[in-house]
Amino acid sequence: MNQLTAHVLNHVVALSIPSPSSGVWHLGPLPIRGYALSIILGIIAAIWIGERRWVARGGRAGDVQDLALWAVPFGLVGGRIYHVMTDHDLYFGAGQHPIEALYVWRGGLGVWGAVAFGALGVYLGARSKGIRMLPVLDALAPGVLVAQALGRWGNWFNQELFGKPTDLPWGLEIDADHRPLGYLDDATFHPTFLYEFSWNLLAFAFVIWADRRFRLGHGRVLALYVMTYTLGRGWIEMLRIDAVELSDVGGLRFNVWTSIVLFVVATVCFVVSARLRPGREEHVYRDQRPDQLDEQPAPGSPGGNL
């Protein structure tokens, strides 16, 4: 390597985004993992946002926290199942250790498994509380975007799921032992975690704006969440170089196809819902009572800000 090349590489690295030297810290014998902290922070943010939106829709304070007791464990299990199913050779291939499929703290949660199972948990909890499903999903959906945005920082702590090599100033430094074969000589990569973090926050702002501007109801906020998320996830997924099973189906990664299919389905649902049931639900409980109607916040109250 000549001096000019070394100078250029040093300059690029100086402008790049560093990765943490470790994603685990120890408080005595207790390990504190950056990945877990990112997920926990995302869950807290989603509950806080969802609670405010639910109260603004006429729901009771505390409902979302109760539903989270169902949604969070279901979502974690579903996210892990989806990840293991789509990358099963990491755990059940030759020389692998199947027990590691249970090691959630090491990373590996599939978004769509988490969303699907989390929604199932919400459904079970909503039934027990007499809550209508579509209004509560519309209230919760934007907060999920924030949870996904914060959760992506777990990939930064683990130095995983990054993109192709790049010499852009915001390239992400990755230690050699985290780089895939074929990329050992590359120093910086596209920070896909940061792209998705930024995209999800922009999508959150757009969905909140659209909901307030057009008073979306009957599942249309949920559909818009899916549309905006998949629109970004599709192009970000194309940048990634991590090896995944079903990684080249018709020239596209499996998660790109998933994004395309879900975007189309969500768009159809949005249009059909708008035509058949315009406006927003007046009641958010199956057996709405007069005292519950009185609990709706007045326009401009703090509960209506989101």
What is the average per-residue confidence, as pLDDT, rounded to a whole number? 88
Helix/strand-derived class? mainly alpha
Q: Over the alpha carbons, how many angstroms does the gyration radius reach?
A: 21 Å
Number of H/I helices: 11
Q: Strand order, main sheet: write it out.
A: 1-2
What does this structure look like?
The chain has one domain. α6 packs antiparallel against α8 and α6 runs parallel beside α9. By secondary structure, it is mainly alpha-helical.
Outline of the structure:
It is built from eleven helices and four strands; from the N terminus they run αββααααααββαααα.
Summarize the SSE layout with pairings.
Elements: H1 3-15, E1 24-27, E2 30-33, H2 34-56, H3 63-86, H4 89-92, H5 111-129, H6 133-151, H7 153-158, E3 172-173, E4 188-189, H8 192-214, H9 220-239, H10 254-276, H11 290-293
Antiparallel strand pairs: 1-2, 3-4
Helix pairs in contact: 2-3, 2-6, 3-5, 5-6, 6-8, 6-9, 8-9, 9-10
Q: Which descriptors would you attach to this protein?
A:
mainly alpha, 58% helix, 11 helices, two-stranded antiparallel ribbon, 306 residues, two-stranded antiparallel sheet
